[in-house]
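Possible regression after last week's pipeline update?

I re-ran a chain I had predicted before the update to compare outputs. Posting the input and the new output here so someone can diff against the archived version. Not blocking, just want to make sure nothing changed silently.
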Amino acid sequence: MKNTLKITGLLTALLFTGPALADSPIWVTSGLKMPESVEYDRVRDQYYVSNINGGVMDQDSNGSIGLLDARGKLINVDWVTGLHSPKGLALHNNKLYVADVKQLVVINVDSGKVVARYPADDSMVLNGITVSKTGNIFISDWTGNRIYTLDDGELKIWLESAKLNSPNGLWVDDNNLYVASWGARPKQDFTTETTGNIKQISLKTKNIKTLPQDNLWINMDGIYPYSKNKWIISDFIKGEILLLDGKGGVKKLVTTKYGSADIYYIHDKNLLIVPLMMDNQVVAYTVE
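New output (post-update):
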């Protein structure tokens, strides 16, 4: 990685008061197949996990969605099969939406059946996904520097810009779409020519704002809100979980492993779920 950023004095300059994670996971689930994303189902008190199970861009029908119970026990590693290299997950109104390379897959969580597939043939790698309270779906095209949306039964480009900086994880609120960017021009080993950063995109104007993070180099994968203007971020390359605030403050919560992917945070349980893609595990930490 061509990392030219200097981090001298970073610990004293950037760390701010905030939460801490337990030193070790409260549970570890093995036996997954390159898990990339985790989604919690509050109604059924269970987790869905996307299994890439091969190359991240392969369209090989070798991917699946796994199912874990509330305590992380693996119920079925191949609960839903027939996907390619599934990544981001989002649950809305009894449907699980899956970003799967060049298609959006929709699964009915009651039946465990695929009920729809929406192609995006011109996309490069559909990756992160989020759904607004009103049901608007946004999907990132990681190396395509695009954001897609589902509009009248078709995946359409909502925004395309090099400023997206290889968009990965997504989160949407009432006013903005937040993007965890990976960094410019990812290579085969996933390293980049520039750092990633959080992008704040106005839903109304589509104006892109880069949130500050001083001189910290991060290859961002997952993003999840912790509190107002504070975000939990996973760094895939370093295997770190970080807390960023809107002014550029950074706190390292825990060092996990290379391959820390698309995280999920359950606020009322103070529980952070981290898929470890290269270790075929999902781990859970208590935020103290």
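Follow-up from reviewer: compared with the archived run. Helices lie at 10-14. Marking as no regression found.
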